[in-house]
Design goal:
This protein is about 80% helix and about 0% strand. It has about 280 residues and is an all-alpha fold. Helix 1 (about 1-25) packs parallel to helix 4 (about 70-90), helix 7 runs antiparallel to helix 8 (about 180-215) and helix 8 (about 180-215) runs antiparallel to helix 9 (about 220-280). The longest helix has about 60 residues, at about 220-280.
Length: about 280
């Protein structure tokens, strides 16, 4: 419960810090040219440069001596918040010369991009560092549910055949781009809901017939129907989740392609800003 509340607490805390800085900007407690404001700029720049270590560590297994990928991922996330905050206080929440404005907006763009990336990342991972939730694993897990229906005779065979047919119909559907993946996922969600409604309705009819021929009690029929409905519902839910994960995986790949150039543009703008400040 506490772990779930940490992200919300962090958002509230960061928002309050930004609000306090914004309201106090007219007091001139901090200035970019000297004193604490200057050193906040240095610390913020160092924090942003340190973000590169995560990318380096992730691509170099031999660099494990500097820490685990998990450690640097968490550090990357933390510094991705602290760095922009320090820079904002360094600038005293005000615009300055053109070179500093370019560096500031580049940093804010990268920070916003990082927030979006974190959201997408959370959609395709079970926990921050958990095992990748692959679409094929979800479908395999849903397919495993079907074996429990075997004992229900005719209705069990009917449900298994229908779910197999549905799986076959979506197995080879390509999702080449983010947009086609989004559209295909939306269509698949509608198909899965219709399949669920149809199978539950038809299973109820078959169970009524089987209940009469087998002499089931009303309670036995209700229990079997509840079990069938649960399994069909879980399967449909897994199919929709698989389509959702497929979309977010492609969206994350696209985000990664865009995020890296933005990050290096921010570094270049920051270096130009530092050079201009000390040169002139």
């Amino acid at each position: 419960m506490v772990a779930r509340n940490v992200p919300a607490f962090a958002v509230v805390l960061v928002s309050l810090i930004i609000l306090v800085g914004w309201l106090a900007r007219g007091e001139e407690y901090l200035t970019p040219e000297g004193g604490l404001g200057y050193w906040l700029g240095i610390a913020g720049s160092a924090a942003m440069l340190t973000l590169l270590i995560y990318s380096f560590r992730k691509r170099n297994k031999a660099a494990r001596v500097i820490g685990s990928v998990r450690f640097w991922f968490r550090t990357h996330m933390l510094l991705g918040v602290i760095g922009p905050l320090l820079i904002l206080f360094h600038a005293n929440f005000r615009l300055g010369p053109p070179n500093s404005n370019v560096a500031l907006f580049a940093m804010l763009t990268v920070a916003a991009s990082g927030v979006v990336g974190k959201y997408i990342y959370g959609k395709i991972h079970m926990g921050l560092h958990g095992r990748r939730a692959r679409a094929r694993e979800l479908l395999a897990e849903a397919a495993d549910l079907k074996r429990y229906l075997g004992e229900d005779a005719e209705v069990g065979a009917f449900i298994v055949n229908e779910l197999n047919a549905f799986s076959s119909s979506i197995a080879n559907e390509a999702r080449a781009t983010v947009l086609t993946s989004l559209w295909g996922g939306a269509v698949l969600a509608v198909r899965a809901r219709r399949m669920r409604t149809r199978l539950i309705s038809q299973s109820q009819r078959l169970l009524r017939i089987e209940a009469r021929t087998s002499g089931w009690s009303r309670r036995e029929r209700r229990d079997r129907q509840r079990r069938v409905s649960e399994i069909v519902g879980l399967y449909a839910e897994a199919v929709v989740k698989a389509a959702e994960l497929n979309f977010y995986e492609r969206l994350f790949a696209l985000w990664h392609v865009l995020h890296l150039p933005l990050f290096f543009l921010m570094l270049a703008a920051g270096l130009v800003h530092v050079w201009a400040v000390h040169q002139y």
